Every structure is written in C-alpha cells, then in structure tokens.
Amino acid sequence: MTEKFDAIVVGGGPAGCASACVMAKSGLNVLLFERGQYAGAKNMWGGAFFGPQLKELFPNFREEAPVERFVTRHTFSFLTKKGSTTLDFKPAFSGPPSDNGFIVMRAKFDKWLAKKVEQAGAIVVTSMLVDDLLLDGGRVTGVRIGKEEFSSDAVILAEGVNGILAQKAGLCSGVSADNMKQGVKEVIALPKQTIEDRFNVNGSEGAAMEFVGSCTRGVPGGGFLYTNKESLSVGIVVELGALVKNRLKASDLLEEFKEYPDVARLIRGGKTVEYSAHLIPTGGLKMMPKLFSAGVLVAGDAAALVLGTGLILEGANFAMASGVAAAETVITAKKKNDFSETALRDYERLLREGFVLRDMHTFKETPRLLKNTRIYDLYPEVVFEVLENILENDGKPRTKAYKIAGKVIKTRVGFARLLSDLWAMRKMT
Amino acid sequence: MKVEEKLALNKYAPATQAHITVNKGLCADCDLRPCVYGCPADCFILKEDHVSFSYEGCLECGSCRIICPKGALQWAYPQGGFGICLQYG
What's the CATH number of domain A178-281, 1.25.40.10, 3.30.9.90, 3.20.20.450, 1.10.1410.40? Predict the structure, then answer.
C-alpha cells in the first residue's frame, strides 16, 4: 500500500468516464477501475445518445467518437396483431445533422470514452472487479480488490444498474423487479446500402424506431430498432416483475417481435452477430438510492438516474451529467480537504440545479403511470380500429370519422375510462 | 433462432468458476420459479422436478438476483476480465 488517490472511480461507462475525465482535467490524481477487458465490454443499450453533455466534455466528439449514425428520423409505432399505426418524424435539415441523437455501439463508444479519460491524465485499469469498499468509522476511504487495498479521499460509484457496492455501503436497500426493465437485443448485420435503402436514410443519417403494443403481450415496455452503420440493433424492453408474473420470456418476445411485418421486412436477410441483455432502472425517484455519504458518491444507473416517459428514453446523458456533478463536488471537497457527508451535499445541489434531478421530479409520476397495461394491450388496437373503419370502403354510405371513433371507444374502452386515462397521462410524458 | 444459438455468437472469456451459485435446498422449495422466465440467456432450465443452472452463457444482467424469491442465489459478477465480452453492445 503506497499511493493514495484523490479519487477512485468504479466503472468505465458514461458516468464513470465523465467524472474521471473532469477530475483528471482539474489536476486530481484519479484511478478508474473497469471490470471488463475493456470499457464497454459489459455494456449494451438501444441506442442513441443525446448531445449536450457529450459536446460539453468533448467538443470534437463528432470527428473523434465512433458514432454509427445521426438520428434524422424517429418513428413511434403502435403494433397490433392486425397491423400497425406509425408516426414518422423527419425534420428537414440544412447544415450538420441534429444534435438530438447519435447512434453508438457501446463496446466501441465506451472504449473511446475510456481513452479520453486516459488522455485527460487518469489511470484506467481494466479487468478489475472491485470487491468491496474500505470503511473507516462509517466513512468510505477506498476500495478493495482481492487482497489489495487502494485508498482515496473519495470513491465515485458508477458501477451500473446492479449497484452492488452502493448496497454494501448502505446507500440502497435493494431493488424490486417492478422497478426494473429488462432489455434484450440482437445486433443484425446488413450491408450499408441495404440499410440506407430500407430506412430511407443517406450517408451518416439514421433512424430510431420505437414500438408499443402487442409485441410485449401486455407487459409494460416496447420494442426498438436502431440503424447502425452496417447493422441494426433490434430489441425488446419489458418490466421484469410483470414479465415473470405473466410467465413470459423476453427472448421469446424478441423472436415474435422480429416476425411482425413492420420489423421482418427491415431485418430480412440480415445475420445476427451478437445477443445481449441488460437491466434498466425505471422506478424513477422512488427507487433512487441515497446519492452520497462520507467519502462516496453514486452516479449514473447505479443511482437510478434514468428517464423513460414513453416518448423520451434517456439515461446515458443523465449518467454523464451526474458523473460531472460528482466530479465537481469532489474537486471542491479537495480544495477544502473535507469529504464529510455535509461537504458532499453539493452533489445533490448541482443535480438539482441542472436537468438531472429536475427532470426526475418533473416526471416523478411517470413510472407509475406507465404501468397502465391499457397503453400496451388496448389503445394500440383502438387507434388501429378507428383508422381501419374510417379508411375502409365497404360500398355502403360513409359515417363521419368522429362517430366511428366514438363507437369504437364506446365498445372497446368506455368514455369514462378513456377520459380518466388521458387525464392521468397528461402527467406522463 | 434459439437462445442457445444466439449465445454461441457471443464472445466470452470463460471463467473456470461459477460467479453465481444456487442453493439447491432453498430452490427446491420454490414453485414460482421466476428465474426460468427472467433469465434472458436460459441459464435456468426447468427439468422435471428441479431447476438446473449453468453460468457459462450468462449475460450478466442481474435479473435473477432481483427476482429470486427464495434468496437462493449467491450472486456476483465474474472475476474481472472474465465473462461476456461484447463486441458491439
């Protein structure tokens, strides 16, 4: 036991890398541990990244980062057994592609992030699983790996959704399957040109597609499809508690999802090259652990900082922003040489001043409202039926659209129930 | 495509020791068996009268840790550097 670090970061994902980068740049002596053979080895997602945090940290990321495609087309589909209804959002661009989404693959992207951390001056050690935290009278003073101990003024836990160390530190008391979603995904290789033709995108343009409806068989969640450079990411995200209660498997739902005509014709002829799974903490504020205590701060998925509203699905930018806030807190604490719980309270203040905790508060009711199963098994069918009846020509005199809609709603949902759902949903997205 | 075939496409650094161990005594008592449904890698397979477990294909998601109602799992990540090595993610 020789060197003492200013900060030790556990985990080389967006939260850990952002925090290590900021601290190292300000001159702190930082050590980051990643359990994979390289940063990103254990990480997967849909997925697209939202810009501002990344741009702030790495102004040249557009040129440097391994971005697959820029999101220039975003679709939202209601899937039913009888067919689908889709909203297709394609803003017209002049100039650089939108800052609203960068499609990246985590094994490549996180590796790049970790390289930036090293360039900033931090030490990154891979293939290292942190076993435990070192404690001294209730204060975290470092980490233990096997028999080796590494001490530091502060430890930032960016260990991901299974907050094992956060739990050991008594910052969270364990999680319920009702607050977790399970994502499973296949990466399906296809030639670049085929992707561009099928998705109506050119060059670095890309599509992000979300699906809600029969593909999850009534379990809260949905399907997704993202275009990478030369592959597609196709997956299903489902609430873990409801999944097992309904005796369903995400792997089966994914196979079914791939057979829906909307999806099947997009992935046709592709070759699966990887299958992965991950949990997403979707319980919102209710499941958030204690964010800090003496000598330790929790960031990213480990702190359940994820926003999913049905329309918006964010997490990596929350991870980065919380990593930065944790880093800034440690930098200030170092100046005062005070790492007590009171001194680290700054972390929560910074998260409140920025978007992280504000968004978590704005959408605090969303996790509960998204559990309404009618969103998944009834409303997609209702929308489809209304349109089907309006557009169909059966040779008889026509009825006005609102009357058709009224009739479908009356028989399938009931007006009172629809109104109460809509009233509740105003708080959802 | 079967889960087994999909897992065969993945790259793993196989560990020689299991990172998850199942207490079979507690497990035998369980009639819900959520692990069989909750594991996306089919590591928990329902045999006639028991659940058989293998760790090799584990995707390290942590679902089983959360849904086991019996507390029958001793759950940890594989030793550093071992287990799944995603190439795409």
Answer: 3.30.9.90
Q: Do A274 and B78 touch (CB under 8 A)?
A: no
Residues of chain B with Cβ-Cβ distance to A36 below 8 Å are 81, 85
Q: List the 36-65 stretch of A: residues with Cβ below 8 A of B.
A: 36-37, 40-45
**Rounded Cα gap, residues B1 and B66, in angstroms:** 27
Cα angle, residue B88 at apex, residues B86 and B89 outer, rounded to 5°: 70
DSSP string, A277-305: EEEEE--GGGG----EETTEEE-GGGGT-
The partner residue sitting opposite A42, judged by closest CB among B32, B34, B86, is B86
Beta-carbon contacts of residue A250 (< 8 Å; ≥ 6 apart): A182, A183, A184, A236, A238, A243, A277, B40
Q: Identify whether B7 is part of a domain.
A: yes
The CATH number that applies at residue B62 is: 3.30.70.20
The verdict on whether omega for the bond into residue A414 sits within 30 degrees of 0, i.e. cis, is no
Separation of alpha carbons A342 and B4, rounded Å: 51
Can you give the residue range of the structural domain that contains B21? 3-84
Minimal Cβ distance to B63: which of A36, A41, A240: A240
In angstroms, rounded to a whole number, what is the distance separating the alpha carbons of residues A165 and A293? 13
Instruction: Choose, out of B5, B20, B88, the residue to mutate when testing the contact with A (most A CBs < 10 Å).
Output: B88
Residue in A with minimal Cα distance to B10: A274
ipTM value for the complex = 0.98
The CATH class, in words, for A4-66+105-172+289-363 is alpha beta
What is the domain partition of chain A in residue ranges? 4-66+105-172+289-363, 178-281, 369-425
Nearest-CA residue of chain B relative to A146? B79
Q: Is B14 on the interface with A (CB under 8 A)?
A: no
pLDDT at A99 over 70: no
Q: ∠ CA A415-A418-A424 to the nearest 5 degrees?
A: 140
Digit-coded pLDDT (tens) for A240-294: 999 999 999 999 999 999 999 999 999 999 999 999 999 999 999 999 999 999 9
Confirm or reject contact between A309 and chain B (CB < 8 A). no
Contacts with A106 (C-beta within 8 Å, 6 or more apart), sequence order: A13, A40, A43, A44, A45, A47, B86, B88, B89
Question: Is there a contact between B77 and A128 if contact means CB atoms under 8 Å apart?
Answer: no
